[in-house]
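Project channel, design review

CF: Before we commit to the Graphocephala atropunctata constructs, I'd like one complete example in the thread so the newer folks can see what an input/output pair looks like. Taking BTB domain-containing protein.
RD: sounds good, go ahead.
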Amino acid sequence: MSGGVEVVTSTATETSDPISHYFHQSPGHCSESLAAINRMRQNIQLCDVTLKVGIEGIHAHRVVLASTSPYFYAMFNDDMAEKAASEVVLHDVDHTALQLLVDYSYTGEIHITEDNVQVLLPASSLLQISSVREACCKFLMRQLHPSNCLGIRSFA
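CF: and here is what came back for BTB domain-containing protein:
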């Protein structure tokens, strides 16, 4: 008993003592819930914002974007025009990079390649998704070789 609350887990054995409180925890609850929200996004269900880059749109849920990106958190919470807009036009972001970052917001997974790192790094910096920005930097560091160091330096 801790602080007057008895914590019972699924491995506890039956006792004849009455339990005044019962604590239940489902280890996969958060990941399963986010996976369900991602399926809703893919089916364009309950989406409350469309991110536009050029003519293409990416449907999403504000709360998921705001939970991953301080940029979106500020956009959707501060007194900005985008706060209540159902469509948000983004400039200076590559559509492919934005799609990858939105996918990352829902899955926590992203594939960084030689083909996408040059658009993914600036997009993750702009949207303040530091974990992806750091992963891009690590990817570039692993790619560093005397034959390409000047090219990577000019990119940075």
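RD: helpful, thanks. The CA atoms of residues 22 and 155 lie 56 Å apart.
CF: The longest helix spans residues 29-42.
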